[in-house]
Write a structure and sequence with these properties.
Layout lengths: L1 E3 L1 H7 L2 H14 L7 E5 L7 E10 L3 E9 L11 E9 L5 E6 H20 L6 E5 L4 H12 L4 E5 L3 H12 L4 E4 L3 H6 L3 E4 L18 E4 L12 H6 L1 E4 L2 H7 L1 H9 L9 E2 H5 L13 E4 L4 H14 L1
Parallel strand pairs: 1-6, 7-8, 7-10, 8-9, 10-11, 11-14, 12-13, 12-14
Antiparallel strand pairs: 2-3, 3-4, 4-5, 5-6
Helix pairs in contact: 2-3, 2-11, 3-4, 3-11, 8-9
Length: 311
């Protein structure tokens, strides 16, 4: 069995090929049961969580991502979220590869947002606002720049120092990148706004969104988390990665539905419908679009298959 490290995944998973592999996988589909959540007692104050995310294509591959969340790891200078991805032969069950889970997740998550933007962002979108400064942020910027002619990038974060450090790092990638402390002004001038935060209260206001803007919401992964307000949802044509996941787990979808701002039937489509041509993406130039992702095991399987082919 091969061991594929984070460094190897960084080297081989370029966003262009990965976006196209995700496009193909959403078109063809695979079996991806709802993720398994298990609470694990610990010796600390807070229980840990074990997540199992399986997916398979008959006769090809079986994959499962194993993720642990230990809330108190920060006190030990360890990441709170860790994991690994196991890829097996779909004909015999033979283990083929064990891949670094966090890097695989970051790459496929950013690529899913770029895949959505390839249908939903304006073809001439050149100005991107990145809200958040974590590990996903630079990957989201580069992924969006793969599918749209992004030239100018503004970075906003709760820590200006972190935003400035990220801006300097991304500036070496051939982009014009700056940090900003004025979120409203940055949003009003953006063609694409990508958010990857742990916010529980909305950061992006719908009244700020300029006509023709595409809003990419990535960070919130529980019903209690929220990155954009009701007005943003009200003004936008709303898409999700999977309807089943987003309507159960994404606060940016669950809360507007509960408040009567959004009906589940008003969700314009998901990545299955977009990639298969069953639903149109952006209908006109000045339309505001919104994409909310929570992740699906389908994306992990597609990324793992590509990585094993290339390493």
């Amino acid at each position: 069995m091969r061991i594929i490290s984070a460094a190897e995944l960084e080297a081989v998973l370029d966003f262009g090929p990965l976006v196209e592999r995700l496009r193909r996988m959403f078109r063809s589909g695979c079996e991806a049961p709802v993720r398994h959540h298990h609470t694990v007692p610990t010796l600390g104050q807070h229980a840990a969580t074990l997540l199992l995310m399986p997916a398979w294509q008959m006769g090809r591959h079986i994959g499962v991502k194993i993720v642990t969340v230990f809330p108190e790891n920060g006190e030990k200078s360890l990441p709170s979220v860790m994991g690994a991805y196991l890829l097996l032969d779909g004909k015999t069950g033979t283990p083929l590869a064990l891949l670094d889970g966090p890097t695989l997740t970051i790459k496929r998550t950013a690529s899913a947002s770029a895949l959505a933007a390839s249908y939903l962002a304006r073809p001439d979108a050149s100005r991107l606002l990145m809200v958040g400064t974590g590990a996903l942020a630079p990957n989201l910027v580069l992924a969006h720049a793969t599918v749209r002619p992004i030239r100018e990038v503004l970075i906003w974060g709760r820590s200006v120092a972190k935003a400035e450090r990220l801006a300097r790092a991304l500036g070496r990638k051939g982009l014009s990148v700056s940090a900003t402390d004025d979120l409203e002004a940055a949003a009003r001038g953006a063609h694409v706004i990508s958010c990857a935060t742990l916010a529980r209260e909305p950061l992006i206001r719908g009244e700020w969104l300029p006509d023709g803007c595409h809003l990419d919401l990535v960070g919130g992964f529980t019903p209690e988390m929220r990155e954009a307000d009701d007005e943003a949802v009200r003004r936008a044509r709303v898409f999700v990665d999977t309807v089943e996941g987003a309507t159960k787990e994404a606060g940016d979808i669950v809360q507007p539905i509960a408040a009567g701002v959004l009906d589940a039937g008003d969700i314009a489509g998901d990545l299955f419908a977009l990639t298969r041509g069953e639903r149109a993406g952006r209908r006109f130039y000045d339309q505001i679009t919104l994409f909310k992702s929570v992740g699906t095991a389908l994306e992990d399987l597609a990324a793992a298959q590509l990585a094993v082919e290339l390493v």
